[in-house]
């Protein structure tokens, strides 16, 4: 039976991606099949979306126009090898695995296959994701635009050359984790100043959300917004000064570049 989309791996990212696509009405749920090694995971997602669910990856990809592979990188080789003979020759295969290059995917699937390497991030779960897309040479501009449209259903998506995916991991793929460390630290400070814990998270989270929203919507440079908040002899410049003394910028750069280096080494 022909279907528009097969998803392999119904975890955090796979679920967010397919929910975004169906929610935006880009692909009808009845044209989708989702597959996971765990029966509970595939039937939960299938039930939420009203699409077909299975534990049989091979049956899921048979006659699918597009296959999105969303399993952890350590399972990817086995999963892709197991599908290579069944995926339709003209199907678009999308991998979101960290550290898995187009060359490696072509080695597993065949270099004549249409493959797009995508690096999304977890805010896709609330339709605020940021994804990069890198097609191989077999993918046409129209096909790439279609994948971009699907990934824009849950946030922003931009095409980047493959060598920039390490930068994408540093800035957006992995960064929700270090932004959370920052939010936790802000909330800890508010708790230390006497605020109840739950209220502290609300204040810290809304401040981070609002700052990013302001920068994205206005195009204002972050340094300009920082200067707008920092009154002469005020509270904010005290905090900025303490951050600089503590090596905050260098710590963030080192952290993000560690993520990039790991992505290169995987
Ligand atoms: N999490 C993130 O922030 C981001 C993740 N990514 C990439 O997305 C991919 C998925 O990550 P994430 O969603 O977090 O992982 P999850 O563990 O949440 O989801 C992966 C799912 O795949 C299932 N699975 C494992 N083996 C198979 C198999 N052989 N066939 C079918 N399904 C299988 C897992 O089942 P079980 O749990 O039982 O093993 C799990 O349900 C990774 O490659 C990661 O690099 C990319 C950007 C951001
Ligand atoms: O660390 C990970 O495995 C994934 C890749 C990008 C974000 N998280």
TrEMBL record:
Reaction(s) catalysed (UniProt annotation): L-proline + NAD(+) = (S)-1-pyrroline-5-carboxylate + NADH + 2 H(+); L-proline + NADP(+) = (S)-1-pyrroline-5-carboxylate + NADPH + 2 H(+)
Enzyme Commission code: 1.5.1.2
Gene3D superfamilies xrefs: NAD(P)-binding Rossmann-like Domain (3.40.50.720), ProC C-terminal domain-like (1.10.3730.10)
Domain Pyrroline-5-carboxylate reductase dimerisation residues, every copy: 162-266
Domain Pyrroline-5-carboxylate reductase catalytic N-terminal, residue spans: 5-99
Gene Ontology molecular-function annotations: pyrroline-5-carboxylate reductase activity
Keyword terms, alphabetized: Amino-acid biosynthesis, Cytoplasm, NADP, Oxidoreductase, Proline biosynthesis
Location of this chain's protein in the cell: Cytoplasm
Pathway: Amino-acid biosynthesis; L-proline biosynthesis; L-proline from L-glutamate 5-semialdehyde: step 1/1
Principal localisation: cytoplasm
InterPro entries: 6-PGluconate_DH-like_C_sf, NAD(P)-bd_dom_sf, P5C_Rdtase_cat_N, P5CR-like_CS, P5CR_dimer, Pyrroline-COOH_reductase
Pfam families according to UniProt: F420_oxidored, P5CR_dimer
Entry keyword annotation includes NADP: yes
The protein's role, per its UniProt record: Catalyzes the reduction of 1-pyrroline-5-carboxylate (PCA) to L-proline.
Family under the similarity heading: Belongs to the pyrroline-5-carboxylate reductase family.
Name listed for the protein in its UniProt record: Pyrroline-5-carboxylate reductase
Species the sequence originates in: Collinsella ihumii
């Amino acid at each position: 039976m022909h279907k528009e989309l097969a998803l392999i791996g119904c975890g955090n990212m796979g679920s967010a991606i397919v929910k975004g696509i169906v929610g935006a009405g880009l692909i009808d749920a009845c044209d989708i099949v989702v597959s996971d090694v765990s029966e509970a995971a595939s039937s939960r997602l299938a039930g939420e979306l009203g699409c077909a669910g299975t534990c049989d990856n091979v049956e899921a990809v048979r006659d699918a126009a597009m296959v999105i592979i969303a399993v952890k990188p350590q399972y990817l080789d086995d999963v892709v090898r197991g599908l290579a003979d069944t995926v339709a020759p003209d199907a678009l295969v999308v991998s979101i695995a960290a550290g898995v290059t187009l060359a490696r995917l072509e080695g597993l699937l065949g270099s004549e296959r249409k493959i797009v390497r995508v690096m999304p991030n977890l805010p896709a779960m609330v339709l605020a994701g940021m994804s990069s897309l890198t097609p191989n040479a077999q993918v046409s501009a129209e096909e790439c635009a279609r994948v971009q449209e699907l990934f824009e259903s849950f946030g922003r998506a931009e095409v980047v050359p493959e060598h920039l995916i390490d930068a994408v991991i540093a800035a957006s793929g992995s960064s929700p984790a270090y932004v959370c460390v920052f939010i936790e630290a802000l909330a800890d400070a508010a708790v230390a100043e006497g605020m109840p814990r739950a209220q502290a998270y609300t204040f810290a989270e809304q401040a981070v959300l609002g700052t990013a929203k302001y920068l994205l919507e206005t195009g204002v440079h972050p340094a300009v917004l920082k200067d707008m908040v920092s009154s002469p002899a005020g509270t904010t410049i005290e905090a900025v000064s303490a951050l600089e003394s503590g090596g905050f910028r260098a710590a963030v750069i080192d952290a993000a570049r560690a993520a990039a280096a790991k992505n290169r080494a995987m």
